[in-house]
Amino acid sequence: MSEKKREIISAAAELIHTKGYEATKLSDIMQASDIGKGQFYHYFSSKRELGLTIVDYYAEMWDRELIQGVFHSSFSAEKKMENMLEWAVNYHVSTQALSGCPFGNLAIEMSEHDEEFRLKINNLIDQWINHLADVMKDLRGEDQALQHARVVVAQIEGGILLMKNYQDISILKDIIAMIRLNYLDKGE
Amino acid sequence: MSEKKREIISAAAELIHTKGYEATKLSDIMQASDIGKGQFYHYFSSKRELGLTIVDYYAEMWDRELIQGVFHSSFSAEKKMENMLEWAVNYHVSTQALSGCPFGNLAIEMSEHDEEFRLKINNLIDQWINHLADVMKDLRGEDQALQHARVVVAQIEGGILLMKNYQDISILKDIIAMIRLNYLDKGE
Amino acid sequence: MSEKKREIISAAAELIHTKGYEATKLSDIMQASDIGKGQFYHYFSSKRELGLTIVDYYAEMWDRELIQGVFHSSFSAEKKMENMLEWAVNYHVSTQALSGCPFGNLAIEMSEHDEEFRLKINNLIDQWINHLADVMKDLRGEDQALQHARVVVAQIEGGILLMKNYQDISILKDIIAMIRLNYLDKGE
Amino acid sequence: MSEKKREIISAAAELIHTKGYEATKLSDIMQASDIGKGQFYHYFSSKRELGLTIVDYYAEMWDRELIQGVFHSSFSAEKKMENMLEWAVNYHVSTQALSGCPFGNLAIEMSEHDEEFRLKINNLIDQWINHLADVMKDLRGEDQALQHARVVVAQIEGGILLMKNYQDISILKDIIAMIRLNYLDKGE
DNA sequence: GATGAATGAGAGTTCATTCAT
DNA sequence: GATGAATGAACTCTCATTCAT
Questions:
Q1: Which positions does the record tag as DNA-binding (chains A, B, C, D) (predicted)?
Q2: Chain D span 5-24 residues with beta carbon within 7 Å of strand E
Q3: Is the CB of C6 under 7 A from strand E?
Q4: What does the alpha-carbon distance between residue B167 and residue B37 come to, in Å, rounded to a whole number?
Q5: Which fold has domain C51-183?
Q6: Straight-line distance from the first to the last Cα atom of chain C, in angstroms, rounded to the nearest whole number
Q7: Is the CB of A48 under 7 A from strand E?
Q8: pLDDT tens profile B30-72
Q9: B69 and B87 in contact (C-beta within 8 Å)?
Q10: Nearest residue to F17 via alpha carbon and C1'
Q11: Hey, of B129, B151, B168, B170, which one would you mutate to test binding to chain A, going by the most A CBs within 10 A of its CB?
């Protein structure tokens, strides 16, 4: 993939993360990645195609950081869970972004009226939940492992939503802390 | 408030709930509420003002159904919690809408770049959390009541997000069931 | 129909007559009828809809001048034929337009890839041929009346094509004269 | 001329025949002849130059099939006329194309606003008419030979126009049959 | 209080053409 | 001789908003 295409994707990803898909205009993207109209359409056939490519771009990051970096690591279940929680918070701390979850936002904006977006995003979320369910099995046995995984993911995504609405990252930190308390520090 | 204005608000609220604020066009609203351009601008000075009015409209519903109907009722803390959970699920069951949470969606779409929207929505969420914190105090003592309230709200909002992305209401039902298990059926 | 809409139609009809449908740009139409983009789309939902409306506009003229004015007149068959030929030449003489036949041009441009255009135009041509076939029956009996009607229409449309390519109206006049000779002055 | 250039010309000729000059985009041509932007501009300096080249390409075919193949043959005038009529119908039968006459279409689309196109096409048509006039002289004497030639060409081109608008080749066949009847089977 | 015509900036997209490699 | 990235004007169309009646 050409350098320029990558540049467009990452500039657009950031814009869409911040403003949403619909509110991000092609002109914003062109300005942010310093290209003209023609060049944009040289690389992408439409704004929607760019949007879908961005989801793929998140999917790669996701796979690298979460699936490979956390779940496929050789750490213990406890440590995996801990790393996942840290990773979730750190993303928002490091970017100082109070924009929320990049694909959580897209999930809400696109799921109902664009099936292709929905499925791509759902694939990410479903992977997350399933890998977490495996960790749950190690942590607390087979019983309701999937349900607990869903609860944790919901809690994180909901926590990010609250953080965004309060524009205060400590809200998310607190909620993540509660997950830790509930699933990791139980017996202590 | 004139009947027509109310009609516009409720038609627009539904559209925005489904498609989002940005993706809902004035023309959609005019068509859905059967009015012309002139009449719209007679009642509202701008699309944004309508949007803000819609948040107020949700605030009324909110106050009626959740604050008065649940938290200010004379039921026990357990029953209040139970009713709140039922109310949360029922909204999505009854409307068969897989559109998600009307103001949760707006929170994500608007919080970062429109402070007035953010504050209005935050007011609703904050009320919810604070009233729930009171219930928590009754249920399980002062300790971390606010944190637990936030966790529950996050879990519900996150559950709705997952439900929307899976386009499957059972996801939300399961997550709500887990909250019930965690906070209500503990000792049983 | 509003005056403005009529103005747009007639300005656009002339442009499309001269330059063709595809080569006539919205900006040409806007300039010629002195309107802005918005106003155009207030009256028409698309360029194509305008195009179809223009065919209807020709159909009206057609009905008025040819069907009512010539074929439904109380003249003899000879006189009807004569009037039709005169009308055909006069259109091109009076407008000094060497643009050809307004809907003959469209027939060629649109027939193959836009069925709605094709059918609308075909309706005009078919009416012409059928009314002329009736005149032929009066003139020279039932035998091959339809075939002769088609031949005459083909000769006229083909004559207009030659006229346009030679950019010389005398070509058309000559061909019309030959039709007259063939069908009207036979016995003389 | 390189093989590739010939390929581009024939692919573009077919596209323009079907869709028209304006509606045929460079991208269509590039796709149909499997070349890139650079290669196109290596062989042609512009779309217009390609268009003019295509008329030349038709002129060659024209010369080969009609002028040499029919008019310069050693057949009798009757047989030449007959062969010309057969050739005219066969082109549309064999290609099953209801796209009409390749340069008749161009004549209508281009004659009025591109003098170079007009003259090139006019050259073809004029040759046709003049050669046919010679045949007419043999067939029916000097009297109005040119006029009759024009009428026949007009009838054929008009017949093709009707055929295209009816999307029915039998219309053309019928009209050609009438020419035969009029000029060849007269005395029989 | 209501209508819908008018506005015009800007949306996403197309396209012939140029240019660096 | 060939590639495809880059250009930018122009294209059809959208939209929130204003204005005259």
A1: 25-44
A2: 24
A3: no
A4: 35
A5: Tetracycline Repressor; domain 2 (1.10.357)
A6: 50
A7: yes
A8: 999 999 888 999 999 999 999 999 999 999 999 999 999 999 9
A9: yes
A10: B46
A11: B151
Would the pLDDT of C78 be above 80?
A: yes
Query: Of how many residues is chain C composed?
Result: 188
Query: How close does chain C come to D173, measured CA to CA in Å?
Result: 11
C162 interface with D at CB cutoff 8 Å: yes
The verdict on B111 touching A (C-beta cutoff 8 Å) is yes
The helix (run of H) or strand (run of E) holding residue A129 is: helix A115-140
Count Cα neighbours of A125 within 13 Å in the Cβ-side half-sphere: 32
Q: Residue B158 in contact with residue A156, Cβ under 8 Å?
A: yes
User: Given the structure tokens 């999937």, which residue do they identify?
Assistant: A146
> Which residues of D are less than 8 Å from C22 in CB distance?
20, 22-23
Q: Which value, in Å, is the radius of gyration of the alpha carbons in chain C?
A: 18
Give per-residue burial for B6-23: e unless 16+ CB within 10 Å, then b.
eebbebbbbbbbbbbbbb
Task: List, chain by chain, residues whose CB lies under 7 Å from nucleic acid strand F.
Answer: A 2, 4, 35-39, 41-43; B 24-27, 37-38, 40-41, 45-48; C 24-27, 37-38, 40-41, 45-48; D 2, 4, 35-39, 41-42
Which residues of chain C lie closer than 8 angstroms to D175, CB-CB? 147, 150-151, 154
pLDDT, residue B186, reads 67
List average pLDDT for each run of 10 residues in chain D, which is 188 residues long.
90 94 94 91 95 95 95 96 96 83 95 95 97 96 95 98 96 96 77
Q: How does DSSP classify residue B66?
A: I
Cβ-Cβ contacts under 8 Å, B104 against chain A: 108, 161
Q: Phi-psi region for residue B184, left (φ > 0), alpha (ψ -120 to 50) or beta?
A: alpha
Identity at D124, one-letter amino acid code? L
D166 touches strand E (CB under 7 A): no
Nearest CA in chain D to C118: D165
pLDDT in tens, A4-29: 999 999 999 999 999 999 999 999 99
| A81 pLDDT higher than 60 | yes
State the pLDDT confidence band at B187, using cuts at 50, 70 and 90: low
- According to the model, what pLDDT value does residue D3 have? 87
Give the pLDDT confidence of C23-74 residue by residue, as tens digits: 999 999 999 999 989 999 999 999 999 999 999 999 999 999 999 999 999 9
How is chain B split into domains, by residue range? 51-183
Q: What is the mean pLDDT of residues C69-92?
A: 96
